[in-house]
Amino acid sequence: MFACIYIPNASNDAQAALLDCAGAFSPRVENMPPGAVVFDVEGLERLFGSYSEIASKIAEAACARGLEANVALASNIDAAVCAARGFGGITVLNHGTEANRLSDLPPAVLSASPEILETLERWGIRTLGAFAKLPAVDVSARFGQEGIELHKRARGVGSRPLVPHVDRVRFVDVVELDYEIVTIEPLTFILSRMLDGICTRLRSRNFATHEVHLSLGTYIRVLNLPLPVRNPKLLTRLLILDLEAHPPGVGIRRIEIEAIPAKPRVVQNGLFVPLSPEPEKLELTLARLKAVVGEENVGAAEIQDTHRPDGFRVSKFSSTNKDISKLDKSWQDLSNFKLLALRRFRPPLEATVQLRNSTPIWIAFHGVHGPIATARGPWRTSGDWWRPTMWDREEWDIEVLDALYRIYFDVHMDRWYAEGVYD
Amino acid sequence: MQSAILHQGFALSRSRSAPQGFALPRSRSTRARLESALGERISAPFTDIERRTLETVPTGIAPLDALMGGLPRGGITELFGPPSSGCTSAMISILAEATARDEVCALIDGNDAFDPKSAAAAGVELNRLLWIRCRKLEHVLKTTDLLLQGGGFGRVVMDLTDLPASNVRSIPLVSWFRFQRTIEKTPTVLVVMSSENIVKSAAALVLRMEKQDAQWSTLLNGFNFNIEIVRSRKSRPLKSYVRVHLHSECVQ
């Protein structure tokens, strides 16, 4: 048995109130905006008595929420909806009587498209009874699949299942403090307790989170995780490390945490999976490393698309990073790669260089000085001439004191620099 | 019952007249009792770790791999040598080999000297390499501790090459043994790069690098270097030399 509560011209607030009202009777509620909700009332007889009494209780509950609603009970969803739309007050359609009871209602209660309603009007169909008497095959030929559905509703024989409405659940916890907190340490205990509760709720609904919003009064931090987790200790530690790196700087009286739910990670482990850190542990390790050496000094190097020397940036590191271009190759042929490595001086070291016939013959820079045994060059590079960060230089490879260096002459600065050592 | 057995064992050990052949079963039973007593805290208190079969991983330097099989997992490998001795090239080869096998690696860069372009040109997959840029020795040590404790890395490289030698020498030996204990039952290889031998007896493998001659064309084309196996846990001759040629057409 299904019940429908209907209010004509319902606003959004009224629709939400209808959902609340239906939710008080059954967990299986279907939202049918505008103005209608349907829910399963099977088994409520033991609590409230007959179907008429159940309908009265529903009407009372709607009234208590300030809603003047029509309530209808029927053995199928569509009949209940049609009855609630067509009859005022309380209506109970017993099983087998739906077609008779609905026969006098106008076709508008079917919530058909305006085109179909107009066609029915032109055909002289004024009631559901008249529509139900039309041959189903002909209705199908004229209106298609929608016509068949409407014809079934008109005959009161709908059989579609209920589509339950699922509320968007927010995983939020708020704590108002009696006095201000100015240090991070006491916050640990509060965050830990709040995240414990949130993670328990996430777990009970088989969710995890990949985004945590922390509001400390007006100060807001967002913790983005590369994969969903629901470990409260890990989240607490990550939030604390984040706050230590970015302290709020003001007293805290209100703490709000919201975890954005996500489907938990499902991993199929294998015997031959290559060695890599557990993602949850890696996140914690990365946060700790950032606290030691600074956020900008931890990550994966990413070479920029430029010929500028030392053009790279540090991006976020994740053990799940995969180079797509390598996916189709099981192994790389390392013998094809160049293996001469350069150790860079960052920033490049200013050098004093003596020339003979435009070739460096002696150099001095940062603890290294002496005659140049071999020098090869110059290798001229320049770029970005339209930007203030332009470069224009002449590179040389030299051998000094049995070590191999790369030096360059900066044409614009008119100075020599040592860029690195080949090692 | 247990105390009675212990008492008996103690009495036998004190007996001068006891035949020598009795000592072995007695020591075995004592060992078994101690192992069972310590079982919950220490899984195998008398297992000789040195006798474990050391799994090795290739370095990507074929002559070296042919000679010694590669780097021992769960141990410290030290590469040391003066500037231009080939340590960095060897380190990059090790990382390239590991990342080509999809292992995740970490580089603790003691003086921010790592050149991503050289590494990428040598075949290192940079998105499988966690790069930590340090400037102080204390940061290097703390970072190494955190990475080794976190676990899961195939290779962890500590680059101490450009740090002041006095600072590097001041690292207590106990720190190296702590690192070694942390990784000894894991598949991680800790590679330490420096200008001189500092890890001493905590290292499972110590390689001294030395530059030989350089080849030149328009620019530096490459150079040869020798690798001397100074120390190895494997039963190999200590003075083994491998001659390796590094090449590059034009390093940009």
Key words describing this protein structure:
heterodimer, A: 423 residues, alpha+beta, Alpha-Beta Plaits, Dna Ligase, domain 1, 3 domains, six-stranded antiparallel beta barrel, five-stranded mixed β-sheet, 11 helices, 17 strands, 33% strand, B: 252 residues, alpha/beta, Rossmann fold, 2 domains, eight-stranded mixed β-sheet, two-stranded antiparallel sheet, 25% strand, globular, disordered N terminus
Radius of gyration of chain A: 37 Å
Distance between the termini of chain B: 76 Å
The average pLDDT score of chain A comes to: 86
Largest protein interface, residues of each chain: A-B, 62 and 72 residues
How much of the sequence of chain A is in beta strands? Answer: 25-35%
Number of strands of chain B: 10
Order of helices and strands of chain A: EHEEHHEHEHHHHEHEEHEHEEEEEEEE
CATH superfamily of the largest domain in chain A: Reverse transcriptase/Diguanylate cyclase domain
Q: What is the CATH first-level class name of the largest domain in chain B? A: Alpha Beta
CATH class of the largest domain in chain A: Alpha Beta
CATH superfamily of the largest domain in chain B: P-loop containing nucleotide triphosphate hydrolases
* Total domains of chain A: 3
Topology at a glance:
The complex is a heterodimer of chains A (423) and B (252).
Chain A: E1 2-6, H1 12-23, E2 29-32, E3 36-40, H2 45-48, H3 51-64, E4 70-74, H4 77-86, E5 90-92, H5 98-102, H6 114-123, H7 128-132, H8 136-154, E6 171-181, H9 185-204, E7 208-216, E8 219-229, H10 232-245, E9 252-262, H11 279-293, E10 298-303, E11 312-315, E12 342-356, E13 359-365, E14 368-383, E15 391-400, E16 403-410, E17 415-422
Parallel strand pairs in A: 4-5
Antiparallel strand pairs in A: 1-3, 1-4, 2-3, 6-9, 7-8, 7-9, 10-11, 12-13, 12-17, 13-14, 14-15, 15-16, 16-17
Helix pairs in contact in A: 9-10, 10-11
Chain B: H1 2-14, H2 23-38, E1 56-57, H3 62-68, E2 71-72, E3 76-80, H4 87-100, E4 105-109, H5 116-121, E5 129-133, H6 137-150, E6 155-159, H7 165-169, H8 173-183, E7 189-194, E8 205-216, E9 220-232, E10 240-247
Parallel strand pairs in B: 3-7, 3-8, 4-5, 4-6, 6-7
Antiparallel strand pairs in B: 1-2, 8-9, 9-10
Helix pairs in contact in B: 6-8
